[in-house]
Amino acid sequence: MNRLWWWCGGVVGAVVLVTGYLIATDFPARSDALAAHQPGTCGLLTAGANAPYGVVASCMMLGRRTPPGGDPDGTVFVVLETDRGPVALRVEYNGEGDAYTADAVEIPAYLAPGISGDLGNRIKDGINQRGGLRAEPWRVHG
């Protein structure tokens, strides 16, 4: 019975530590901010005439993640259909309110969550046609 109390105490202590860490890193506020920015992500990517991947025909949301650490504050995953082939992007958000920045980084197909095998192959073909992954981020806001 004594070991059971030690295990329970350890579990409760771990929960308190994790909760404290998430609150200290402002996880709830960062998650709320990302939820507010996510619907406008496709608008940011399709509005810019300076898209490095060509003319954007459509944008498809794949999902979002808020890392527990906070760099970036949050990430939204999208696939753009462009005249140079489909592009999988990770859009990294940092900052609060209107003073935020958003940088789009091209990612390989296997890092894009929830895509089909066919779309993954099309993304791979697009990367090959463009001469490889674009290494430098594309600043879409800020």
How many β strands by DSSP?
Answer: 5
Task: Give the amount of beta strand, in percent.
Answer: 25-35%
The secondary-structure element order is HHHEEEEHE
Query: Structural class, please?
Result: alpha+beta
Outline the biggest β-sheet: 5 strands, antiparallel
Query: Unreliable stretches, pLDDT < 50, 5 or more residues?
Result: none
Number of helices: 4
Radius of gyration (Å):
19 Å
What is the helix fraction of residues, given as a range? Answer: 25-40%
The gross shape turns out to be elongated
Strand order, largest beta sheet: 1-2-3-4-5
Distance between the termini: 58 Å
Average residue pLDDT = 79
Structure in a nutshell:
This protein is of the alpha+beta class and 142 residues long. 38% of the residues lie in helices and 27% in strands.
Overview of the structural elements:
By secondary structure, the chain is of the alpha+beta class. The protein has helices spanning 2-24, 27-37, 41-47, 117-129, and strands spanning 56-65, 74-82, 85-94, 101-106, 138-141. A 5-stranded antiparallel beta sheet has the order 1-2-3-4-5, sandwiched between helices.
